[in-house]
Amino acid sequence: MTSITNASATGFNWTKSSYSGGNNNCVEAALGALPAALPVRDSKREDGPAVVFAGTAWTGFLDAVKRGDVA
Question: Under a CB-based contact definition with an 8 Å cutoff, are residues 37 and 52 in contact?
């Protein structure tokens, strides 16, 4: 896992999670921005950092959430 210091300077097309609702707890991802990886950031901090997950790590995380292993 790596990170991007200034996520707003990347030129990526960020997409907000459809599960964010209106409570300001939003996650954005730059789908297709990097090969075999997924940058993720807090939508409230566009100029803040982004964490870059390997595709397999992100898939494993989502699977764990769906199983209820991660709240």
Answer: yes
Dihedral angle at the C-alpha atoms of 1, 7, 21, 59, nearest 10 degrees?
-20
- Amino acid of residue 38: L
Q: What is the pTM of this model?
A: 0.79
CB 50 within 8 A of CB 41: yes
Contact yes or no for 48/14 (Cβ under 8 A): no
Contact between 64 and 70 (Cβ < 8 Å): yes
**What are the residue ranges of helices labelled H in 1-71?**
55-67
Note the pLDDT tens digit of each residue in 37-62: 999 999 889 899 999 999 899 899 88
